[in-house]
Amino acid sequence: MDSRLSSFQSNLQQSQQEISQTQIAKLEETMTDNYSFQRKGNENQYRHEVKVLTKLKEAKASLEAPELGIDSVRTAKMKIIEGIDLVRERQKLIKLADSSQLGWKVVSEYVANPIADDSEDEKKMMRAQSRAERKSKAEKVKKGKPRPTPYSRNPEKETKSVKPGRCFKCGNKGHWVDECPDMKNKISNSYSQILVFDNINVIQGHFAPLVSDSSNKSVNTKVNTVKNTHTVMCIDMNTTVQHECVSPVGRLKVNIGQWKLITENKHIIDVIENGYKIPFKTEPQHAVIKNNRSSLNNKKFVQDEISNLLQKKCISEVQKIPQVVNPLTVASQI
Hints:
two-stranded antiparallel ribbon, two-stranded antiparallel sheet, 13 helices, 8 strands, elongated
């Protein structure tokens, strides 16, 4: 009777000790929750380590009993197995985060939606991946929306500062050469003086401006001054008659002889004579790419623009297919 009582007493003490050790471990785990982590990933990793440490402490408490029995060994073994399972689960989550572009967002969705049946674990991962992708897209859309402004600011009026001294170009005060009105209007004035006609007729390939006799002489003089320049055919806005317009295209090439006297640089001479060529390291393979759908849907616009560029001699028609033919694209502004 005494032996049974003493055995019962020892088992009771052992059980109380295991319970107290377990309660202490749980209390330590709860106390760690008071710490506020700055990063969610660090917090999750820390909580996982606390769970594993709790299982190991419970196993240690079972093995430190005064009289080690079969029940204590079984309890310790069970706690160790639970700790191993926690480590394996964490390793699986780390692999899941590493295999996805969204990282730990997928893990958060995976953990937040548990499924009892382990056979559907793969489907669970796929669903977590889909949810994480949807949330990521929604966050991008939300960030892309402009923030509403509480009030609209009135645009500030631009105030030009008055420069000291006089302009070296016109001699007037208040501005310098870079802001001189005469410099800004120099090209536009000279160009408009040549091409200001009320109407234009074509007679044997030269101009017959319909102006008064008093101004006819001066206009013809100005036209003759640009006879030697490169010209293109333009259409008068008031009539359907074509006439010549001044264009800078070809002026450098016409005077190639003068350029050869000025410089011996072969690159400059080649650019003036043959045009600029992109210096490829390796010559690209022959390719003819079809035009994009936007140009095919706007054939009339494309034809008109190509005709305009040909008339202005900004482009030229070639008889041989080039090495690479890029597709045409029409961009429309809505």
